[in-house]
Design a protein that fits this description.
alpha+beta, 128 residues, single chain, 20% strand, three-stranded mixed β-sheet, elongated
Length: 128
Amino acid sequence: MVVCDPRKGKYMAVAFLYDGEFVPRERTQAATLPIAKSSFNFVERYSTGFKLEINPQKPVRVPGHELARANRLVSIISDTTAIAEWWSRLDHKFDLMYSKRAFVRWYVGEDMEEGRFSDAREDLAALE
């Protein structure tokens, strides 16, 4: 899991996962409300990136877990361009550690070539 602010990016896909006893009208309203209010800012080429997944079985409670029992549950999974902010932070941390040569000796001691670190940095930059 990654912590990022979805308001700073655009959505590519959103999935609503329903578990339990839902009236079909409730599901439809819950899915269409964000579209109607334009609270989901989609990337232009993915403007229909909604998926509804329906499981009529009640959510299962893990024994000994602190969560309360529920007859129904909704989860939202999304793919957003706001993840770029997280990649940027990761790049910065990598640069700080590599500039101090932190942990490099451990990897080189395990027969890893030092050039692999610059390759890894280039790969991170490509993801950003």
